[in-house]
Specification:
Elements: H1 2-17, H2 19-31, H3 36-48, E1 51-55, H4 62-72, E2 77-81, H5 88-92, E3 93-98, E4 103-108, E5 115-119, H6 126-138, E6 140-143, E7 146-149, E8 155-160, H7 173-176, E9 179-184, H8 190-201, H9 214-224, H10 231-245, E10 259-261, H11 265-281, H12 289-300, E11 305-306, H13 308-312, H14 317-327
Parallel strand pairs: 1-8, 1-9, 2-5, 5-8
Antiparallel strand pairs: 3-4, 6-7, 10-11
Helix pairs in contact: 2-3, 2-4, 3-11, 10-11, 11-12, 12-14
């Protein structure tokens, strides 16, 4: 009985506090035609304090979506074009000696922003990737002997092109795991592409309005944590992650040769947080199995290590996740 009353209270609170989600989606839709999954994923990342990796061929509005989000949320935004000659100092900043003051002064780099667009992240060498790693995980940057906290909210939104591999570096597994979501973006539908055409040849291109500020985001994140998750849903999340590690235990012996390693405990945590964020977006005070299933691919696809056998047989992570979602018992 108490649980029912609590959920009713949470529902009422979320109904009131999530009103800005509609405003956010509406402003995004002014500029981004279609791509609903992309818009929802960006909002989930924003509410979950999680970094996002966007993968798609050029021209699918990856960069435009991220820059539009930064215009709608009144935050400091920086775009960093990753190139093979990029140095950690170009990202983090450096110490500069001042002859006038006879001391070293800190010159902070573009990482000191709320939203970072890491464009074509797989073009940067290992030193730059490791420099970004501390910022993503610890939300801080070390310059010289001093550690500086990054502003709140802090979100890395990275893009990568899956086709052109010349002059690119594979992202280390440790860094890929730091991305909460890996979102695959596909081509728009025919009628959506006609609207894109019309919008881009019109006299005036739509300009989104600033509708929320950083405090709204930080407050919403606290309310997302209050979304109720039943013990059965917790067990379901754990089962999904364990099925990527030990498919044999769940009657999916055929998956074993295709998986080198399964998802990490970070996947379990992120599945729970993202499911709560999705429930919040859907104006609900509790998580359903459908919420978990909706975010599962984006959370798991970059955390499953595929074997040579999988590559030889053209099996990808999404196919493995589909099999797991169709096999593991839903509560």
């Amino acid at each position: 009985m108490n649980t029912t009353i609590d959920i009713r209270e949470i529902n009422e609170k979320i109904e009131k506090e999530s009103a800005f989600i509609d405003l956010l989606s509406m402003e995004m839709s002014k500029v981004i035609i279609g791509q609903k999954h992309l818009i929802d994923s960006l909002i989930i990342g924003l509410l979950s304090d999680g970094h996002i990796l966007l993968e798609g061929v050029p021209g699918l509005a990856k960069t435009l979506a991220i820059s539009t989000l930064s215009e709608i949320v009144d935050v400091k935004f920086n775009r960093i074009q990753f190139t093979p000659d990029l140095l950690p100092a170009d990202l983090l900043g450096t110490m500069i000696y001042s002859q006038k003051n006879e001391e070293f002064l800190v010159k902070k780099g573009p990482i000191f922003s709320n939203f970072i667009l890491a464009d074509e992240i797989n073009r940067a060498p290992a030193k730059v990737q490791s420099a970004l790693l501390e910022a993503m995980q610890e939300r801080q940057v070390t310059l010289g002997d001093t550690t500086y906290k990054l502003p709140k909210p802090f979100l890395v939104l990275a893009t990568q092109n899956p086709i052109e591999q010349e002059g690119t570096y594979s992202l280390p597994e440790a860094q890929i795991d730091r991305f909460m979501l890996k979102v695959i973006i596909d081509y728009p539908k025919k009628e959506e592409e006609q609207l894109i055409l019309r919008e881009n040849i019109a006299k005036d291109f739509p300009v989104p309005n600033k509708v929320i500020n950083p405090d709204d985001i930080l407050r919403a994140r606290e309310i997302v944590k209050e979304v109720y998750m039943d013990e059965k849903i917790e067990k379901y999340i754990v089962d999904l992650v364990f099925a990527t590690r030990f498919p044999f235990d769940y009657g999916m012996e055929k998956l074993s040769p295709w998986i080198n390693y399964g998802a990490s405990p970070r996947a379990t945590i992120n599945l729970a947080i993202a499911s709560k964020a999705l429930a919040f977006i859907r104006r609900r005070g509790f998580v359903t199995p459908e919420d978990v299933r909706h975010v599962a691919k984006d959370i798991l696809r970059h955390r499953i290590g595929l074997s040579y056998e999988a590559e030889a047989e053209n099996v990808n992570a999404d196919q493995i996740i589909n099999t797991i979602l169709n096999t593991v018992q839903v509560p």
